[in-house]
Amino acid sequence: MNKxxxxxxxLLFFLQPISIFGQLNQESPYLYSMGGxxxxxxxxxxxxxxxxxxxxxxxxxxxxxxxxxxxxxxxQAFGVKGIHFLCQIGVPIExxxxxxxxCLIESSVSVKTCAGCVYWSEPMxxxxxxxxxxxxxWYCKNEGYLH
Length: 147
Fold this sequence. Notes:
Elements: H1 3-15, H2 47-57, H3 61-67, H4 73-88, H5 95-105, E1 110-114, E2 119-123, H6 124-127, H7 130-142
Antiparallel strand pairs: 1-2
Helix pairs in contact: 2-4, 3-4
């Protein structure tokens, strides 16, 4: 991942409308969250989280690899998380992808996220700390999301 891609990811983030009733909703692929939505009153995961878990369960490394180069930082973050999950279950990760992941893990690009009913933006490097990825993996594993 180069600086130009990170620049465009940041630019796209600021060009998107920020509205709890519009762009930021539980069905939006542009929201980094693993939980349900207290604001909308449902307990299902956001669409991107569900797709990420499906790709992990299907061992679909190539699709998650494509997510790393998405113009949307939320999708990139899910790509990192999904590849981390694959690594935890023994799927080998390519060296070039590790370089991209390292770049994303250190990125200050803002990612739209939520905590059930509060939406905000947070730097990617805060969301993708190893302890966050590890606890998310064990949560998904223990709750039966991962096979």
